[in-house]
UniProtKB/TrEMBL annotation:
This enzyme's EC code(s): 1.1.1.22
Enzyme class: oxidoreductase
Pfam families tied to this protein: UDPG_MGDP_dh, UDPG_MGDP_dh_C, UDPG_MGDP_dh_N
Name listed for the protein in its UniProt record: UDP-glucose 6-dehydrogenase
Sequence similarity: Belongs to the UDP-glucose/GDP-mannose dehydrogenase family.
Endpoints of the signal sequence: none
SMART domains: UDPG_MGDP_dh_C
Pathway(s) per entry: Nucleotide-sugar biosynthesis; UDP-alpha-D-glucuronate biosynthesis; UDP-alpha-D-glucuronate from UDP-alpha-D-glucose: step 1/1
Domain UDP-glucose/GDP-mannose dehydrogenase C-terminal: from-to ranges: 335-450
Naturally occurring in which organism (per UniProt): Flavobacterium azizsancarii
């Protein structure tokens, strides 16, 4: 019998769960969507009367939340009720890299996933479709199924893999106009019926030809593979950026030249201070761990190199700053433009800025940060998380500013860590006038105009030229 979907529950109100469910609610007004989380503060923020205070900044998101919230979109801490009522349950909880035990530093930590599975198993009284929305190691569905099928309460579960491909900063556009929706399920009639139920949800706004169905394992592995390929392009161009600096080639020109080859394509070829974000590193490390666990050492080493190159690129940037500033940054004020891992997001997870700051503080630099969306508390928490030095030392070494011009006063150098558009529109003459001389700019995102800055008097260094 075909399941009629009237209620969806999503466990995890984070960067994926929140925006994804908001878009489903917008496009499917006939379905009640409830997003639940253990984090009461986060849920309270999603429910804040002033929609500007929702916990995630994404262009276009607050308008969608405003439209659907209270109509068919709900945020709640009552996890049990939402699970009990829903026909489809998305699991969208965090799957960080393990920080303990076997696989520490590489494998995905699945404890939150398992907790969800156990809770679903305990509460469910009728048949459910459970959807892996989180990024998971290939064959995780097997473990989830085993937990769900061994509760003895006779409920039938179908597990689907439906990985999310949105990028932060463009989450709403990506969700409204996805390149594809991937749904993996069992090949049994019940599995196919579950797949169809989820296809029917997405087909409210996604053209049918963009909805791809596969077996569960292909879907799980495709998500890790997509992130690995994307990150690999960045590490590839970043590797070449150093060669460009040595040879007089310009990495932007090289990227353009190769990107015009339709087989290569122009996207994801921007050389930078290194990729950040919560997923590229974690997912590649996970892929490396899985390959190793099957004894595929060459496969593992191949992908690990993407991470090694990225770490090198971040280190290379901080070393270049120190070397250029006459081999010492001790007690020198260095201004960071940007802390987020990319523009148009307040997310700082694994941002290159954190590691560059940590290196420079180790050299006793004084860091001044201006980021339009990231708070001082978050910046310091990111540094403290590395546990390189005491909280007091970090607090004494880093100041954040609400105003970019103040952040630059009496500074020796500016380092651009995030490609926020506003940085290109500043009065750079005014900035130059307020800095110590010689005034340096290290453009870790290649967004500023070299000729303009040099004509003002800056010593300007970009990545890869
Ligand atoms: P997040 O940390 O922002 O959100 C996860 C939420 O789950 C947290 O609010 C946490 O409190 C909640 N949670 C954890 N365990 C819970 C439980 N047992 N019950 C209820 N709530 C629980 O994470 P995220 O960035 O949204 O990522 C979620 C998953 O999606 C990860 O697997 C990630 O790899 C994947 N992903 C993320 C992105 C991205 O852009 N951030 C994109 C694609 C895929
Ligand atoms: C990435 C993928 O693009 C999404 O498809 C995926 O769903 C997501 O990871 C995930 O699984 O979490 P995200 O990390 O949000 O999305 O953002 P990206 O636009 O991919 O940027 C990642 C990092 O790479 C950023 O630090 C960005 O500045 C950097 N980058 C990106 C470059 O240095 N050069 C580029 O050409 C592109």
């Amino acid at each position: 019998m075909k399941t009629k979907i009237t209620k969806i529950c999503c466990i995890g109100a984070g960067y994926v769960g929140g925006p994804t469910m908001a878009v489903i609610a917008k496009k499917c007004p006939h379905i009640q969507v409830t997003v639940v989380d253990l984090n009461t503060e986060r849920i309270a923020a999603w429910n804040d009367k002033d929609v500007a205070n929702i916990p995630i900044y994404e262009p276009g998101l607050s308008a969608i939340v405003e439209e659907a919230r209270g109509r068919n979109l709900f945020f709640s801490t009552d996890v049990e009720k939402a699970i009990e009522e829903a026909q489809i349950i998305f699991i969208s909880v965090n799957t960080p890299t393990k920080t303990y035990g076997k696989g520490k530093g590489k494998a995905a930590d699945l404890k939150y996933i398992e907790l969800c599975a156990r809770q679903i198993a305990k509460i469910s009284k009728d048949d459910k479709i459970v959807v892996e929305k989180s990024t998971l190691p290939v064959r995780t569905a097997e473990a989830i199924k085993s937990i769900l099928d061994n509760t003895g309460n006779g409920v039938q579960f179908q597990i689907l893999s439906n990985p999310e491909f949105l990028a932060e900063g463009t989450a709403v556009t990506d969700l409204l106009h996805p390149d594809r929706i991937l749904i993996g399920g069992e090949t049994t009639p019940e599995g196919q019926e579950a797949i169809q139920a989820l296809v029917d949800v997405y087909s409210n706004w996604v053209p049918e030809e963009k909805i791809l169905t596969t077996n569960v394992w292909s879907s799980e592995l495709s998500k890790l593979t997509a992130n690995a390929f994307l990150a690999q392009r960045i590490s590839s161009i970043n590797a070449l950026s150093e060669l460009c600096e040595k040879t007089g080639a310009d990495v932007n020109e090289v990227a353009k030249a190769i990107g015009m080859d339709s087989r290569i394509g122009p996207k994801f070829l921007k050389a930078s201070v290194g990729f950040g974000g919560s997923c590229f590193q974690k997912d590649i490390l996970n892929l490396v761990y899985i390959a190793k666990s099957y004894g595929l050492d060459e496969v593992a080493d191949y992908w690990e190199q993407v991470i090694i190159m990225n770490d090198y690129q971040k280190k290379r940037f901080s070393t270049k700053i120190t070397q250029t500033l006459y081999n010492t940054v001790a007690d020198k004020k260095i201004t960071f433009f940007g802390w987020a891992f990319k523009k148009d997001t307040n997310d700082t997870r694994e941002s290159a800025a954190i590691y560059v700051a940590d290196d420079l503080i180790a050299e006793q630099a004084k860091i001044a940060v201006y980021d339009p969306k990231v708070s001082r508390e978050k910046i310091l928490a990111d540094l403290d998380y590395l546990k390189t030095r005491s909280q007091e030392e970090n607090t004494a070494s880093l100041v954040s500013y609400e105003n970019p011009y103040e952040a630059c006063q009496e500074s020796h150098a500016i380092a651009v860590l995030t490609e926020w558009d506003e940085f290109t529109t500043y009065d750079w003459q005014k900035i130059f006038d307020s800095m110590l001389k010689p005034a340096f700019v290290f453009d870790g995102r290649n967004i500023l105009n070299k000729t303009d800055l040099e004509s003002i008097g800056f010593i300007y260094q970009a990545i890869g030229s």
